[in-house]
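Notes from the 1:1 (GR / supervisor)

We went over the backlog. Supervisor wanted to see one worked example end to end before approving the batch request, so GR pasted a single chain during the call. The sequence is below; no edits were made to it. Supervisor asked that the structure be written out right there so they could see what the output format looks like.
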Amino acid sequence: MVPHAAFMTLSLISGKYKMVILYCLVEFETVRFNELKRYLKTISDKTLSMNLKELEADKLIVRTEYPQIPPKVEYSLSERGKSLMKVLDQLCVWGEENRLTE
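Structure output shown during the call:
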């Protein structure tokens, strides 16, 4: 049985792209929509937009909109998102240390 807190944490990063988006924001700090799209290559505008909205609703990223023409929007990790990255890094370390070889 998975403890409730662990289930909640996993639900925040579920899906094909959320972890990749978070790691992109760690690497590049502040990123615009089209930069994320180029980095993720195969993601559709709709899927990227949906994932960004979910990450923002979960307070893992910050969306900053600048009042100019054309509109400029940037995404960055929130403090909550940065604290989650410490956990995700440990998951990666565990995965490397426990990789099954064929």
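Supervisor's comment: Helices lie at 4-12, 18-28, 33-40, 45-57, 79-97.
Batch request approved.
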